[in-house]
Amino acid sequence: GMPGRGGSVTVLGFWEPVGELQQALGPLQRRLFAFDGASVGAGDAKQLQLKLTSDALAVANERGERIVHPGVYRLVFEGPDATASHVMLNTTVAVEGSPRVVIAMPM
Questions:
Q1: In the predicted model, is pLDDT for residue 101 greater than 70?
Q2: Which DSSP symbol is given to 105?
Q3: Between β-strands 71-79 and 7-18, what pairing exists: parallel, antiparallel or unpaired?
Q4: What's the whole-number mean pLDDT along residues 17-42?
Q5: H helix or E strand, kind and range, residue 23
Q6: Res 37: pLDDT
Q7: Which helix (H) or strand (E) is 20 found in, with range?
Q8: How far from 84 is each of 26, 27, 62, 79, 87, CA to CA, in Å?
Q9: CA–CA separation, 14 and 37 (whole Å)
Q10: DSSP states of 62-86
Q11: Residue 102 pLDDT more than 60?
């Protein structure tokens, strides 16, 4: 690519449900779970860390409880691009086990 002038870079991490999980959760948009930024000089390489905990996958149900559902999630990492957001990395993770309540509504 073209050599950059340097500046500040932000990378965003999103998750979205895949397959059966997507059908089970309904028309859910993808969610931002983390972002990290760094200032980089032209030609620099920087390492960014975006952490995903399973709690970040929780989705509220009709009672307002936040629940982590087992299934497959796609993780999409996007960085800045001159014209539009640029997908840098696209991977999937699988959550196993039973649905788990992260936050229960007070009785």
A1: yes
A2: P
A3: antiparallel
A4: 85
A5: helix 20-25
A6: 87
A7: helix 20-25
A8: 27, 24, 35, 9, 10
A9: 15
A10: TTS-EEEPPEEEEEEEEE--SSS-E
A11: yes
Q: 77: which 2 tokens?
A: 């990492």
Helix (H, G, I), strand (E, B) or coil at 4: coil
Question: Tokens 């870079």 identify what position?
Answer: 9
The strands making up 7-18's β-sheet, listed across from edge to edge, are 31-40, 7-18, 71-79, 86-95
pTM, 2 dp: 0.75
Among 15-29, 61-75, 88-102, the range scoring the smallest mean pLDDT is 15-29
Task: Collect all residues with Cβ–Cβ distance below 8 Å to 1 and sequence separation of at least 6.
Answer: none
Nearest to 88 by CA among 75, 69, 101: 75
- By residue count, the chain amounts to 107
Residue with tokens 């449900």: 17
* pLDDT confidence band for 57 (50 / 70 / 90): very high
End-to-end CA distance of the chain: 57
Q: Which pair of structure tokens corresponds to residue 15?
A: 């998750």
Task: Look up residue 69 and give its two tokens.
Answer: 């559902």
